[in-house]
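no rush on this but wanted to send it before i forget. theres a chain ive been looking at and ive put its sequence and its fold in token form underneath. please have a look and point out which stretches look like helix strand or loop to you. thanks a lot i owe you, the record is right below:
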Amino acid sequence: MSNSFGTLFRITTFGESHGGGLGVVIDGCPAGMAFPHQRVAAQLARRRPGQGKLTSARREPDAYEVVSGLEPETDRTLGTSLTLLFRNKDARSRSYNELQQAYRPSHADYTYDARYGLRAVSGGGRASARETVARVAAGALAEQLLWEQAGIEIVAWVDDVAGIAASVDPEAVTREAVDRAPVRCPDEKVVQAMTSAIEAARRDGDTVGGIVRCVARGVPAGWGAPVFGKLTAELAGALMSLPASRGFEIGEGYDSRHMRGSQHNDPFRLDANKNVYTTKNHSGGIQGGISNGATLRMSVAFKPVATIFKPQDTVTRDGREVTYTAKGRHDPCVLPRAVPMVEAMVSLVLCDHMLRAQTARQQWLRHYGDTPA
């Protein structure tokens, strides 16, 4: 099992949903950076369960300990591995006692068993969305680096719930507008309908899915690679690693199949300072796997949460067909809590590519003594 992600800015997560705790080791953070406790805490609060009727009732403070990598007197990074540890406080393993044998439909229970010959029964272990607490913390650190060094701003929001779609200008969405409603949609016209759809699913013992959209503003041209290191592919891989993710789009995405090239192409122009820009952004800010300087625009589709409170047919490890009804505390819709998860994964990818671009430029200067054209 791979627990690490990234190249120069690299994270390794550890821990299980109902174990003693979870955490993340972050490598590649430069020395001397003031640790962004406020940003980390804010993003963790947005991801945390127990936020109301739209989320799981599990109560976790998500307080963290910085075990290594900080200079205690100044709270600045040392350039060595940063380790953050989160202790589980509200695990209820007894809710999973009957799952010692039964496989939950559409969960990772059977596939983990098929792969490893055993599994963490309580809470799904590493397959639980609880694991994302580590990603969100690391992502907040990456986001701070992106802001300080490149002025990059990343904002995600719930754009669709159960087919109820928002209509917003991606360039104008702010994190403040996103957080005005618990459903985390900045379009006030559809907030109530989205909320009602989630609450109706909860009352029915069911779940719903939808779409989270995300923009990254201020990404310069030149990040990425033309073949296997495409920025598009690495964003897709990062976002598709999130629990319950089922689809990724960049720019016009699947809708581009209905367009002609003359409609989809993004014309180039020169501004007053002779800088290249595009007059449209159907490509979503990436062309040929490399950023072109326009806003990155992407979306992630999330399936309905697999845990529903209705009887379902399943089988057991010892070869019996049974009926299973879920118990415990679960989200009726993952979307509101997925917003900071999406922002975290985008931040991690972009921070890694920023450091790669800086390294490539430094290597050029060492060899040729001048800035590449």
Q: What stands out?
A: The two ends are 42 Å apart (CA to CA). The helical segments are 37-47, 109-116, 132-150, 175-178, 188-203, 231-239, 261-264, 335-368. The chain has a mean pLDDT of 90.
